Amino acid sequence: MVFCLRLNIGKPPLSIVKDIVYRYLGVKDCRVLVGPSIGEDAAIIDLGDRVLAVHSDPITGAVKHIGWLAVNIAANDVASRGISPRWLSLTLLLPEGCLISDLEDIMRDIDRACKYIGLTVIGGHTEVTLGLSRPVVICSVIGEGLRKNFVKTGNGKPGDKLILTKGCGIEGTAILSYELEDRLKALVDPDIVENGKKFFNYISVVKEALRAVDSGGVTAMHDVTEGGVATCIQEMALASNLGVVAYEDKMIVKHETAEICRALKIDPLMLIGSGALLIAVKRNYAESIVENLMNEGVESSIIGELIENPSIRIVRRASGETLNLNNQLEEQLYKVVEFT
Questions:
Q1: Residues 6+ apart with CB under 8 A from 214
Q2: Share of the chain above pLDDT 90, in %
Q3: Domains and CATH numbers, the chain
């Protein structure tokens, strides 16, 4: 029986989320304009002419700079709605034997990230938890903005161009550079690994999300997270009930990411990728948005477009092969890092 099967590490299959998780959501509330749905980054709650955007996320696959990651990644989901993140509720679950200095390091990272984004910590919970081998940080971020300005993941239209900011596997590059430092330095130039560690500095997409919306023409946005750029494209197409054709050779893949993925024999398109943002835009706005982002110091590229036929969801590989996005995609981080 299917309910006896065990789940693998990472996101459960979409069918499990839809058939089980989404069956048990409490009472309905007409003020929830956007609730739980595949690919939708944050809930939207109606406040009249204004809305709240609310999102929660844990960090479970990293230790280094976990506080910085947790805050930025949760804030990214709110900003992907076109809404400025404002407030943070924080839960810290610490392993037995955790040093007080480790807790302070996490909190310093959290404070630094909040000041960088403009967030206020409004509450939360801290405890030492039985059975953990590493800290878990869970952030709930709330933003506020005009109702007319919020953006959904699932509002893409046929013919919309897809813009990807910064590139593939940004977060994964940083995590791997720390978690597999010794192994990687034996496989690639050590400078590549040291540079890869700095990719944590590029995790926020708040600036580019808000700048893109201000530029006009944006129909949908989705921040890249687990499963990488390929999963992000898949989820936007699913949420919009559309097809998609994207092109690997149009996607930015930094030298450090390419070399680390080559050495580990993993696919950068399916490597956890916080720090990148997927933006669907009306065709005649695409070039100007790329230019506006570049003026803000954010590199981006047009990587494909949404199409009418939902049976066609593909990435055309640089090799000439095709990646079918209607299949379940596998996060690459868990193929090479064992989290215990």
A1: none
A2: 89
A3: 12-21+29-149 (3.30.1330.10), 153-336 (3.90.650.10)
